[in-house]
Amino acid sequence: MLFDEITLKLNVDPLIKSAIREDITSEDVSANSVMPVSKQGEVDLICKQDGVICGLPIFERVFKIMDDTTEVEFYVKDGDEVTKGQLMAKVRGDIRVLLGGERTALNYLQRMSGIATYTRTVANMLVGTKTRLLDTRKTSPNNRIFEKYAVKVGGGNNHRYNLSDGVLLKDNHIGAAGSVKHAIEMAKEYAPFVRKIEVEVETLEMVKEAADAGADIIMLDNMTHEQMEEAIRIIDGRAEIEVSGNVTKENIQKLTDLGVDCISSGALTHSAPIMDISLKNLHAIEA
């Protein structure tokens, strides 16, 4: 996923504009009180803790949408490891824009950097294995494009983007279909030829049924280590294997010996703490 100009205009700008409108419904009363006329200013973007920076194009876009003459001079790029106290950028423009866009821009940057930092920590635990780290759809509404981008920057991989992106038959799909076998048969009949069919299973009986029915990917959900070892023997190379279920940085290393294709973790997006970042030292400058 890249934030190229087309992606920004079509998919990102409407979300950013909505976020800005959420913060400024009519005017920024505080900024207009102290700055009743346009005046040029400069402010520093400072990292307040160690981590992986992510979301700089979105940070810049907030100010550019408010005033396209705003200038941002970056000293780092997405994916760089930064340290507490580091000066990462200078933003120059109308002081009212710098004040009005500050919180929205930082909200994106802090959230995305927090996800990238957490993902980097978890991804590093899989170095030297064949197992890929995947995210999930457990993202905050209207922020998926930002959060999944942050996972990629942190060294993880994206699972399907949304419900239109791939077939994943979970417990309730199987319940609706009546059985694992029938759910897979129906998906094969309905889904486009290029779509892989993934099935979430919770028991060894479901594992066998999914493998026998020709699932492309079998997700072992919330199984014990012993159950997963037996499931891998049952599948015997007939499908790719994904492990899922409450995977965090605290327990993922216990899964590395399984040698599965993928491990997915909702924690990458729903539990990553934000990274502390500030805009400081705002001052007027000559235009």
Explain how this protein is built.
There is one protein chain. By secondary structure, the protein is α/β, with parallel strands linked by helices. Helices cover 41% and strands 20% of the residues. The protein has helices spanning 5-23, 29-34, 56-66, 95-124, 144-154, 171-177, 180-190, 204-212, 225-235, 267-270, and strands at residues 40-47, 51-52, 71-74, 81-82, 87-94, 132-134, 167-169, 197-201, 217-221, 240-244, 262-264, 277-284. The strands form three sheets. The chain has a six-stranded parallel sheet with strand order 6-11-10-9-8-7. Strand 9 (217-221), helix 9 and strand 10 (240-244) form a beta-alpha-beta unit. Helix 1 crosses helix 4, helix 4 (95-124) crosses helix 5 and helix 6 packs across helix 7 (180-190). It is elongated, with a radius of gyration of 23 Å. It starts with a helix and ends with a strand. The mean pLDDT is 97.
Characteristics of this structure?
287 residues; 20% strand; four-stranded antiparallel beta sheet
Assign a percent range to the helix content. Answer: 40-55%
> Would you report the number of β strands?
12
Radius of gyration computed on alpha carbons: 23 Å
- Put simply, the count of helices is 10
Main beta-sheet annotation: 6 strands, parallel
Form type: elongated
Low-confidence stretches: none
* Strand arrangement, major sheet: 6-11-10-9-8-7
Order of helices and strands: HHEEHEEEHEHEHHEHEHEEHE
From the helix content, strand content and strand pairing, which structural class follows?
alpha/beta
First-last Cα distance: 37 Å
Proportion of residues in extended strands: 15-25%
Roughly what is the average pLDDT, rounded to an integer? Answer: 97
